[in-house]
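Section handout, structural biology tutorial.
Before the tutorial, make sure you can parse a SMILES string by hand: atoms, branches in parentheses, ring closures as digits. In the record below the ligand is pyridoxal-5'-phosphate, and the chain has 394 residues. In the tutorial you will relate the predicted structure tokens back to the input. Do not try to memorize them.
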Amino acid sequence: MDIRFSENTEPLVPSAIREIFKSLTDPSVISFAAGNPSPLCFPSEQFRRFCGEILEDDPAAALQYGITEGYTPLRQALQKRCRTRFGIGDGNSVIVTTGGQQGIDLTAKVLCNRGDTVICEEPTFIGALNAFRAHGCNTAGVPMRGASIDPDELEAVIKRAERPKLIYLIPTFQNPTGRTMPEDVRAACLRIAEKYGLLILEDNPYGELRFSGEDVPTIKSMDKEGRVIYCSSFSKILSPGIRVGYVICRDDVASKIAVCKQVNDVHTNQLMQMVCHRFMTDFDLDAHIKRITQIYRKKAALMIGALDETCGGVIEYTRPEGGLFIWAWLPALTDHDGFVKALAAKKLAVVPGSTFSCTAGAPSAGFRLNYSMPADEQIIKGVEILKDTAKEFI
Ligand SMILES: Cc1ncc(COP(=O)(O)O)c(C=O)c1O
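Predicted structure of the complex:
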């Protein structure tokens, strides 16, 4: 029997990352392809303790239906932390979501009509691209150059786009490039959004994972009229398996998101929301974040040091100050697909750039490297494979 799937799902491309994961059952493959935080960073003992205490002290609250907007004490704690940590002022509501991914999906759902265009950094996060495509949106990319996008190019892409509606940005430790948008570019993006009557979705799941340099103000902290919808999650600081994220935005947008979330999943897992609340109030979250960023600092330095030592002049790469990713490319290549396949044949998995492109079928402008998951010796061996393979391509 032939099944005709919906038009909305037609443009969805299976994540190459998931496909790559299938090859990773071979233990001899070194993977720089993951997007996962290191399991060394999971506060497992505290999870066990908080779950036990909550189920002992208040089982009814943890096991009963909750409200769609989220567990109120968690929403209050998030509001407070995002005010002090990320300058997000009053006049906004917090909606707890089932991961940041649901925040992106619901934002597109409440704002975009079929045929609207979402302007994105090029390359950008595949999960967001697929969410926009699933709502019938076109995606238009503004190329990442140097530290970030060029505001003039952003404006040019907006002018060319059909029914532009939303600008999707990952300003801090971007996925996949690891780059951080400078403050003046953030301010310029907001001014351009104002000029063209667009909204900005600021996605900040890596913002707490800074291991060097200085914080840059969030775009949301510059937003005076509720033009920015801010999205983040506990995935990268506590655990992605618990699926707790959040959106902070103007009350009217938040109310719409809540109605749509009710249709999706009624509310986010209540026990895990209560656990996140305990992490925010009965635990030194800052000390934990400091500990995990030290792990990532060491891993990133190891990979960058190995790249500097062996790949200089052949491979170029970003130097992230936080997050989980390095973006790399061979200046000699315009399409890196063959290179990525050659790496796979030598049992090194990386994610090809085409995965993150706004344009289906676009060539791979580079590839993404992850340093949080591989063991130290795998980082050294994997970079050796990169170097040896690159020599065959220049
Ligand atoms: C940029 C970005 N946004 C959002 C997400 C979604 O994360 P989660 O749904 O686990 O919060 C990810 C996950 O990797 C990401 O890289």
